[in-house]
Automatic annotation (TrEMBL):
Gene3D superfamilies: MetI-like. One of its GO terms (molecular function) is molybdate ion transmembrane transporter activity. The keyword Ribonucleoprotein does not apply. This is Molybdenum transport system permease. Its main location: membrane. Part of the binding-protein-dependent transport system for molybdenum; probably responsible for the translocation of the substrate across the membrane. It is found in: Cell membrane. SUPFAM superfamilies: MetI-like.
């Protein structure tokens, strides 16, 4: 019958679903619900929470400023020769497939005191980037920027370009077309990409702890605080993990299918 799966496919799908659902379910079942308000009210938790939301918000703003133009470039690169187009897409995709710790090491080598850029920053301006709050933001931008770029690129590819052509015909400059026509057309894609970008930045761990370290109130974000608490106070670690899980679920429920590029509800 159409629409029904054979039993081997159904069983494999069920196992795959269990792999995805059971770990979060175990977290929810193990959560110390009675002590949750007290755990989340601790000073160390509040510090990590404020730092995480502040840095993730700033990282998302930076990704919006840089990512939307990059998405436009990627969408227009369809007419480029094959090699440059593939190189550009690979460059944007690398942070998605690269282990975050490797990304942190690479940023440390680039912006550390002996790095080509980090050395100049220290010599010219007396600025050191690693192990600062700014390093947290940069690590979050590195890992989350592709989420925004690909969401906006998908929206740009599916947008009706006849409106852009009409505006250009009426004398609008390229910047005016992009600002007043293109951006409003792809606003849902930009919004979805920004939310996904924020969520990814909020959950960043590997690149952050490698590049920024774990200084309380300075670089110790929620994921890092949860990891460290697991060694001394498992209940606090579970409470922090549950908070991050709740944020992720709320984001996914809020996005819904119609907000995702290329998908219609």
């Amino acid at each position: 019958m159409a629409g029904r799966l054979s039993w081997p496919v159904a069983v494999a799908a069920g196992i795959a679903l269990a792999v995805l659902v059971l770990p979060p379910a175990a977290l929810v079942l193990r959560a110390p619900w009675a002590d949750l308000p007290e755990l989340l009210a601790r000073e160390s938790v509040i510090q990590a929470l404020v730092l995480s939301f502040a840095t993730a918000t700033l990282a998302t703003a930076i990704c919006l400023v840089l990512g939307v133009p990059l998405a436009a470039l990627l969408a227009r690169a369809a007419d480029w020769p094959t090699l440059p187009r593939r190189v550009l897409r690979a460059a944007v995709t690398v942070p998605l497939v690269l282990p975050p710790v490797v990304g942190g090491i690479a940023m440390l080598l680039l912006l550390g005191r002996r790095g080509p850029i980090g050395r100049l920053l220290e010599e010219w301006f007396g600025v050191t980037v690693p192990f600062t709050t700014g390093a947290v933001v940069l690590a979050q931008v590195f890992v989350s920027l592709p989420f925004l770029v690909f969401a906006v690129e998908g929206a740009l590819r599916s947008a009706d370009r006849r409106t852009e052509l009409a505006a250009a015909t009426l004398g609008a400059s390229r910047w005016q077309v992009f600002r007043f026509v293109t951006l409003p057309l792809v606003a849902p894609g930009v919004a979805a990409g920004a939310v996904l970008c924020f969520t990814r930045a909020l959950g960043e761990f590997g690149a952050t702890i490698t590049f920024a370290g774990s200084l309380p109130g300075v670089t110790r974000t929620l994921p890092i605080a949860s990891y460290l608490a697991m060694q001394s106070d498992p209940d606090e670690a579970i409470a922090l993990a549950l908070l991050l899980l709740a944020v992720s679920v709320i984001v996914l429920l809020g996005l819904r299918d119609r907000w995702l590029p290329g998908v219609r509800a």
